[in-house]
Amino acid sequence: MSRQELLNPEGLRIDGRRATELRKIKCRPSVLRQADGSAYIEQGNTKCLAAVYGPSEPRLKSQIMHNKANINVEISYAPFSMSERKKRSKTEKRILEIASAVKQTFEPVIIATLFPRSQIDIYIQILQFDGGTIQICINAATMALIDAGVPVTDYVCACTAGLIDSTPVLDLNNTEELLDSPELTVAILPKSGKVTLLQMESRLHIDKFESVMNLGTEGCQAIYKIMDKSIRDSMKDALEKMNG
Amino acid sequence: MPTLISPSERDYILRGVETNIRADGRGRHDLRQITFETGIISQCSGSARCRLGEGTDVLVGVKVEIGDIEIDGAEEDFGGKKAKRGKVICSVECSPIASQQFAGRAAEDYNNELAQILDHVFNGPQGGINLEKLCIIPGQQCWIVYIDALVLDYAGNILDTIFVTTRAALFNTRVPKTSVQENEGIMEIEVFDDVDQAERIVGWDQVPIAVTLNKIGSRHIIDATPLEELTTEAKILIIVNKKGKLCGIQKSGEGSIEPSLLSEMIQTGRTIGQKMIRVLDDNLQREEAEMNSKRVKGQQFEKLGFFGAT
Question: What is the pTM of this model?
Fold first, then answer.
């Protein structure tokens, strides 16, 4: 597929979006019963489910920290999540790397010092994959943490941004990711605007970097509004049910 | 998530089962309410999600892919049969999302055990699926049906839920139509992408479901909750199909069962299993009819997926 087809002369991408348009996002907290907190999020065709357990007693003695809680992240892809059915082991290096990145993203945000010698588990399951792994894991985990009532200083919202034919584009899907165009994942704390994750594994000219990064940040702010609304609506619902 | 049970709790459950009133008010042979929906993962050839009561939640995705027929040096006859059949490959994953006891590698053994049960059932003639129809080029290429079950929430009775969801997912599965042409001595397969031409899996209605009977005291119950599962002395897994034929029996657990109780349990399992299949089929047909009528009228039919009420 030639690069031209990714962004046609009218400014539309393969899925009909404009360059700076996010995919359709639908999300909902509290979808599971056993977990302390859970969330389900769909960004376009990527579907992800996250569950949070904790703070609870650590399973391994080696993981006990005397002054704060230990945060554990596990990510798993369903075998049917990609177009070709493939069973991916949880200990695959790429998956462990993503889990580690997610863990580091949440470490400054979760107020772990409130729970010394305990463990907070974040389990993420990707049900359908169409690009944007890290971003959807972070977004789902944020909602699940808030649903679990784990104290956090702010939401963490993530978004991908890239460059196709010198045009900055937002929220890349799988087809766009697989081709060589530069791609940047950024996660921010919306209230302060601070960046808590920044990852890029391709070449990007320094002159273009700022515009792509700014676009990513705007995307994060837009995602923040959607997630916040969804959580507030579901809380309002719960309050109404409680108060009769 | 309880893994320990106190003697008082055990006694409470025992007495409840004896008087036919369990902890949640059900009788010994009452099921929790099943809610399901098919076709929620668009990338799969078929999918279904089933929720038992407010607890156990299982998602099954079925993907059909073209693969090679493997005839490993088995006996002549068997090798001959294998050459003309498709394959079913099953996997089960108890996600740590369902319960903390499944985190890390703890659930591997359990996953294997469940996957083996599914594999044995579906790859044999008792599995219902017509494997001969899945063959494309005898001896070379066939359809491989991958059945992947994902347990998302745990409140007891995983295996029964997996089977029910698998049956719903197989009902929803469509196998693309193929045509085989010979081109200079090489057989070529053409797969038609047209969704309307895709066919249902032949034999989906003969697919059996499982009923797990738990022996508690001198009685038996179905659809146990986690605490009831911990009180169980012995379990019988009955796999029964629409016609009431037994497709598999497995006894597990540390206790033993008297022969008279055993035959009673098997009979109960058969009756309940057949009833469950009837109710499931009625609802599957109804869901599909609703979807088709909306499609014909040009109305949008959106799958609720995880956005339905919990």
Answer: 0.91
Residue B55 tokens read as 């607890």
A164 CA to chain B: closest CA distance, Å? 26
Q: How far apart are CA B187 and CA B180, in angstroms?
A: 7
B97/A51 CB distance under 8 A: yes
User: Using CA atoms, how far apart are residues B290 and B147, in angstroms rounded to an integer?
Assistant: 26
Question: Nearest CA to A41 among A53, A52, A29?
Answer: A29
pLDDT < 70 regions, chain A: 1-5
Closest-CA residue of B relative to A237 is: B309
Predicted ipTM beyond 0.90: no
CB-CB neighbors (< 8 A) of A29 in chain B: none
- What is the interface size between A and B, counted as CB pairs within 8 Å? 98
The residue of chain B nearest to residue A33, with distances taken between CA atoms, is B55
A20-27 long-range Cβ contacts below 8 angstroms, 24+ apart: A20/A168, A20/A169, A20/A170, A20/A215, A20/A218, A21/A170, A21/A171, A22/A159, A22/A170, A22/A171, A22/A219, A22/A222, A22/A223, A23/A171, A23/A173, A25/A223, A25/A226, A26/B307, A27/A139, A27/A140, A27/A143, A27/A226, A27/A227, A27/A230
Chain A residues whose CB is inside 8 A of the B102 CB are none
Taking Cα atoms as reference points, which of A118, A122, A171, A127 lies closest to residue A143?
A122
> Residue A198's closest CA among A179, A178, A180, A220?
A220
- Inter-chain contact B97–A128, Cβ cutoff 8 Å? no
Best mutation target, A24, A25, A30, A34, to test chain B (most B CBs within 10 A): A34
Per-residue pLDDT of chain B in tens (310 residues, 90 and over written 9): 457 889 999 999 999 999 999 988 999 999 998 888 998 888 889 999 999 887 899 999 999 998 888 766 554 555 566 677 888 999 999 999 988 888 878 888 899 999 999 999 988 888 888 888 888 888 888 899 999 999 999 988 999 999 999 999 999 999 888 888 888 777 888 888 777 778 888 888 889 999 999 999 889 999 999 999 999 989 999 999 999 899 889 998 888 888 888 888 999 999 999 999 999 999 999 988 988 888 888 776 677 777 776 5
